[in-house]
Amino acid sequence: MSINPAWYLSLSVVLFAIGALGVLVRRNVLIMFMCVELMLNAANLAFVSFARQLHDIGGQVLVFFVLVVAAAEVVVGLGIVVAIFRRRASTNADDLHLMKG
Amino acid sequence: MTALLGVVVTTARPTLPDIGVFAVAAAIILAGAIGVVVARNPVHSALMLVMTLFGVAVLFVLQQANFLAAVQVIVYAGAIVVLFLFVIMFLGVDREEDVGAERLRGQRPLAVALVLLGTTGLLLLGQASRWTTGQPHVAGLDTGAPNVNLIGKSLYTTYLFPFEATSALLIIAVVGAVVLARRPPAATSSSQVAEADAATPEDLAAPADGEGGAAPAEAPVGDRAESSVTGSSAGAAAGTSGDGEAAAGEVGG
Lengths: 101, 253
Description:
The complex is a heterodimer.
Chain A: H1 5-25, H2 29-54, H3 58-88
Chain B: E1 2-4, E2 7-9, H1 16-38, H2 42-62, H3 66-91, H4 107-128, H5 147-156, H6 160-181, H7 190-197, H8 201-205, H9 208-214, H10 219-234, H11 238-252
Antiparallel strand pairs in B: 1-2
Helix pairs in contact in B: 1-2, 2-3, 9-10, 10-11
């Protein structure tokens, strides 16, 4: 009938790993943000997979909440990036090692 | 009933179209994800992210989460990635960057090793134990009701409080974005006061200067009031008040 949920979970693990690798390796704040989105998507995929496996709609509702939180996070995060860029004209995370503005 | 990767499978064998769709979508997702990480240009990263998001939406459809697939395309690809692209182009960082430079020595090999370790550990953990336990819950997926109905019902009954909290979160995010985007009020620090004192003659002509320096806390209100007073008391053309506002804005910046 349908694909084995283990495949979805494996794909989710790999996607999360790629996102985590991106956050660790890349130094551009914007790309680090995108990698965080990748990780959130991996979690969403796992949620939907579990919802299907357990016949529970709660997993899909949680994905909905994750979407909302991701949207809020991106809005505030990009606002911070713009505010920092005004001061330092850089989106490199290594340049932002001071708490001082 | 087979146990692959810790998941006990009770469903029948997957059909060929299902396998094909899953394989293509997984390939798209992984290619997009790798593209996000390795692309030199942030714009390319954002476009690769769209690719990944579409692949995930396809997998949502494959798992009968139709509503979420639509929301995924609309909210993620339609809103979030567009916001990313807007900020990239607004800041003007849409050019190639040097990915080779490494500030912390050994950071990259360490990151790759850690991620590989975590991934294999997780997969082995799944192999060793069961990932899914517990009984099927109420409001199942296979009741025949449309997906949207099920989600809506669950959202407004079981998850009503989190849903309300979500609305509060969105409001806070909007307020936070506005606060972050706002320019700091005039003369909050001594350096800005000095800057305002040493300003150009147009700036000095603006009456907001003295007010801003004397009462820092009420500077924005003072600015607004002063510029409106300028506009009305001068009684001149709109150019006068426009100048006053522009000067006040410069002081604010």
